[in-house]
């Protein structure tokens, strides 16, 4: 077609080529500089000058590619296409393009997969197979209350810019669509643990909790899940201690119950918050406490079975301890624990294995910090700089003596001798890990003369060669 048009003096050009031609003609006529044309065409000045020269010598056809209307230099021979299509019709009629290419290559007929697919489509030997989205159907509800509880957080403009940014965290029962929700300033693990505690105190322990794969529920390393299947997050550890199964969904559609509840909440509760002119998280929760009973009354469904699968909390289920951020630390020899760049002195009594053992630091939701050794919570005192517990080991007496001498020189007084022990020194003949005895009071020195060693008369050293 292009050849026929050229024979009639008609040149087929694309829109891009026509735009380039208009700019270059302005350059040839002097209405535009080479630099301006290079900026418009996103080419270098050298390329614009080269195209300008070709335009003057060859005319408008200089901007059209030389192979326009001609077969590609890389096209396969017509003979090969005939052989491939004949072999496909005879032996590989129900083969896909990929598998057929492998079999044809074994016969010496090498052709690309996409090339063979185009040939088969042109001959009507293959139909394009479109990949459709997988069919999804709603999973039937669980049979009874407490069998499965879905949990998720919704980041939304709940206050429509009137106040602080808040996040809604929701727990919804799969069997009845009963909702428990609360607004938080951050969608952190502490917020999720707090809402879980509200559900546990109100209903008991469900059989399973269904969540997404956020790092709150699934351990991640640089955005990717950990390879260790036994790794747990703080939330997963808490569910494990409560004997609640954690199920992590692979798609948002899998936990559609809680996702659809957010659609209802974002439509109704946003307007309720607007009418009440709520601007803070506390006021939002106060209003939500009034909205939840009506919401559950309006949208909750009766379960197929009247049973309640929730299990009561036992004596060993201390929620304040379980629903906390826990970290392990090692107790030093002087019963000191370091956590968050702060030292804590463990107070008596000392339990067997406590020194050198591991303790659990509990950062509870009420802001307090507890230290647990086994099942016992230990009393402790924070070591403050310059306080009565200013360090893990007292200063040696020589430092105290030098400080007293310096004080005497500046004040002109004699140094006052302290009758209390200035420190502890290891008992003679024992290592530093054994019980210690105090230094003598009053700065008295202990005579510990070293006996000079002399070899016996018959010692080999005394023998002369």
- Give the strand content: 15-25%
CATH homology-level superfamily of the largest domain? Ribonuclease H-like superfamily/Ribonuclease H
Highest CATH level, the class of the largest domain? Alpha Beta
SSE topology string: HHHHHHHEEEHEEEHEHHHEEEEEEEHEE
The DSSP helix count reads: 13
CATH architecture of the largest domain: 2-Layer Sandwich
Provide the number of structural domains: 4
| CATH topology description of the largest domain | Nucleotidyltransferase, domain 5
**Rg from alpha-carbon coordinates:** 42 Å
Gross morphology: extended
Structural class: alpha+beta
What does this structure look like?
The protein has helices spanning 2-7, 15-28, 34-41, 45-58, 78-91, 97-106, 113-123, 189-203, 234-241, 256-275, 281-299, 319-322, 397-411, and strands at residues 149-155, 167-173, 179-184, 208-211, 220-221, 224-225, 245-248, 325-330, 336-339, 342-346, 358-363, 369-373, 376-378, 380-382, 424-426, 436-438. The chain has 465 residues and is α+β, with helices and mostly antiparallel strands. It has four domains: 2-63, no CATH class; 78-123; 149-299, Ribonuclease H-like superfamily/Ribonuclease H (Nucleotidyltransferase, domain 5, 2-Layer Sandwich); 324-411, no CATH class. A five-stranded mixed sheet has the order 3-2-1-4-7, with helices on both faces. It has a four-stranded antiparallel sheet with strand order 8-11-12-13, with no helix packed on it. Strands 9-10-14 form a three-stranded antiparallel sheet, with no helix packed on it. β12 (369-373) and β13 (376-378) form a beta hairpin. The radius of gyration is 42 Å and the shape is extended. Residues 388-465 are annotated as: Disordered.
């Amino acid at each position: 077609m292009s050849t026929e048009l050229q024979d009639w003096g008609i040149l087929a050009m694309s829109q891009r080529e026509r735009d380039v031609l208009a700019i270059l003609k302005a350059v040839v006529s002097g209405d535009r500089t080479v630099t301006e044309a290079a900026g418009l065409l996103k080419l270098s000045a050298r390329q614009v000058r080269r195209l300008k020269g070709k335009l003057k010598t060859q005319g408008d056809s200089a901007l059209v590619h030389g192979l326009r209307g001609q077969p590609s230099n890389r096209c396969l021979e017509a003979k090969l296409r005939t052989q491939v299509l004949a072999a496909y019709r005879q032996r590989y009629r129900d083969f896909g393009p990929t598998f057929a290419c492998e079999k044809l290559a074994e016969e010496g007929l090498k052709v690309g997969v996409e090339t063979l697919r185009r040939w088969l489509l042109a001959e009507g030997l293959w139909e394009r197979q479109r990949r459709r989205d997988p069919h999804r159907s709603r999973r039937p509800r669980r049979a009874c209350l407490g069998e499965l509880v879905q949990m998720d957080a919704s980041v939304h403009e709940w206050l429509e810019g009137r106040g602080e940014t808040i996040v809604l965290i929701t727990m919804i029962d799969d069997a009845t669509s009963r909702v428990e929700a609360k607004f938080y300033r951050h969608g952190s693990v502490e917020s999720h643990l707090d809402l879980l505690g509200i559900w546990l105190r109100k209903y008991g322990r469900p059989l399973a909790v269904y969540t997404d794969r956020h790092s709150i529920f699934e351990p991640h390393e640089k955005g990717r899940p950990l390879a260790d299947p036994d790794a747990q997050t703080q939330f997963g550890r808490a569910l494990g201690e409560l004997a609640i199964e954690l199920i992590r969904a692979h798609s948002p559609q899998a936990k559609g119950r809680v996702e659809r509840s957010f659609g209802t909440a974002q439509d109704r509760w946003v307007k309720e918050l607007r009418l009440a002119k709520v601007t803070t998280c506390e006021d939002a929760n106060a209003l939500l406490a009034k909205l939840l009973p009506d919401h559950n009354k309006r949208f909750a469904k009766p379960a197929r079975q009247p049973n309640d699968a929730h299990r009561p909390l036992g004596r060993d289920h201390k929620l304040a301890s379980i629903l906390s951020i826990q970290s392990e630390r090692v107790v030093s020899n002087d019963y000191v624990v370091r956590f968050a760049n702060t030292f804590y002195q463990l107070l008596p009594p000392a339990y067997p294995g406590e020194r050198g053992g591991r303790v659990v630091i509990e950062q509870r939701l009420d802001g307090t910090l507890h230290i647990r050794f086994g099942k016992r919570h230990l009393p402790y005192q924070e070591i403050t700089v310059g306080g009565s517990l200013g360090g893990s080991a007292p200063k040696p007496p020589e430092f105290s003596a030098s400080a007293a001498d310096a004080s005497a020189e500046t004040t002109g007084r004699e140094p006052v001798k302290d009758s209390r022990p200035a420190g502890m020194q290891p008992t003679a003949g024992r290592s530093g890990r054994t019980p210690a005895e105090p230094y003598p009071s009053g700065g008295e020195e202990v005579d510990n003369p070293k006996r000079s060693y002399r070899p016996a008369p018959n010692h080999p050293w005394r023998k002369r060669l």
